[in-house]
Amino acid sequence: MPSPQAQAGGFQQPQDQPGAWQQQPQYPPPVQYPAAQGSPQYPAAQGSPQYPAAQGSPQYPAAQGYPQYPPQQQPAGAYGYLATPPQATPTQYPAAQSYPPYPPQQQPARGYGYLATPPQATPTRSKRRRVALVATLVVVLVLTIGSVTLFIRNRGTDDPWSQAWLDGFEEAWSLKAPTDSDGQTLSTALLEDRLVRVASTSSTATITVYDVSGDAPEQLWETEQDITNTVVWPALWDRQIIIENTFIDLDSQARSDAPWDADARVTIMSNGAVACVDTTCQFWSSPSKKLWEVEFPTDTAVEMWYSRTDDYSIVSSIEYEDYFVVDLKTGNMNRLDGKKYVFPYKLNDGWLTYEGNASTEPTTYHLYELDGTPSESFKSDHQYDFSEYPWSPTPFTREQARLWLEDLDLSWAPATYTVSQTDSDCDSITINRNDVELGETNALTNAESGGECTGTSPVQALTYAGYGQVQSFNIQDGDKRYLMLVDMLTGRSSELISLGSFDDFASYGLHEDLLLVTYQSGKVVAYQPNS
Fold this sequence. Notes:
It is a single chain. 3% of the residues lie in helices and 37% in strands. The chain has 3 helices and 36 strands. A 5-stranded antiparallel β-sheet has the order 1-5-6-7-8, with no helix packed on it. The protein has a 4-stranded antiparallel β-sheet with strand order 4-36-35-34, with no helix packed on it. The chain is globular.
């Protein structure tokens, strides 16, 4: 996965920057594997086979890219550099006690709707089919294919999905790939009705701005900027396009100097910009006002993860080995325990990390308060011995996460879903008595040699909760990739949204009700619910 600057292409989700859609780091809970040198990479595109092994943490092959919460998040709605897997602000539901706890182990309907069937009897462990662990949170992926470098961010949605997507969708507009893009890194950012596309070599960036308010993109202007390193993704801050340490006004094209060095890794937050150089980060509330500067105790360069909130976020080393919770108002920090490439999970009232090889030893989970102060740690060994998951439209609380991960307690959950026992291939989940097929390379289901269907790792429940009632799943069919949206209360699903082939290396991001799918070639296709 890419580096948190977006990690996610660094996807940043600028907070409180309505309309800003940039590839930035997002909060990434799942395990990610480094892809391109130095920047975080995600194994293969979502849907590609992964094995549950290491800690049962979610893994996603390719499309997902960088951690989203960390650098995955950026100013509100930004689809660019990662800032931390930003937890998309979900529609608020009558949450059960602060935050939805894991679904109760008993069936009947509850405040959030009908509960999925009770957990099936624990199947006998035996030879297992290899299972792909898919992390659908915001993550950035950096891949180098031939002469083209692609930064992908998947589960890359800054806003919650609406129910309208389940009734059908249509293409809103599309933008052809630029000519002669070989050897260039292509990235996009969206702010309101302005689309920014950057084609970058190691020395020159070509910035093109389009008006996408109509049926087809209309080019407004194009300019070039000398650079010292390839631009991974453009960041947008207060209608300024950030290219290294230069501001380019989105409307007038006027240039001005940014207050940080050209090699800074910049993450746009809802209340300012964070620029990190080596192991030091600075927080700017405006181009002329620096609130704090902090050096982090790590041996490698760091970057800030995007966060939708203006209280706390994650700073991680670009090697994804060290993680810190940072108070965005003061710069105070606390280190989190964990394992390399295992991203912290954002909870309703804190954070969660874990470590240990679930296939050979119990997993150790660490819970923290919002400021990163240790809360408690515990061990658990529940890999493959369950078939029912808890679900909530809002992030789990620390107590709910502990109940689920330590004891598989579902009594607190607003709703649950189960691994289908009617699908002989063990590729489906059951929601409200409706089977939803996820395909063989999914992160939730496992097939035992005896024909039993079980869950994979309990921590996967956190990956598919907390984003509102409609959740996105990446589907693989041969070399084709698709996005499917599922109502986690009713089991109703959308038609498949094409993400092209694995060779297309498409990334996607949601801004309000507009879905942008960007291909490595620079082609962009926008979808919207049927009008």
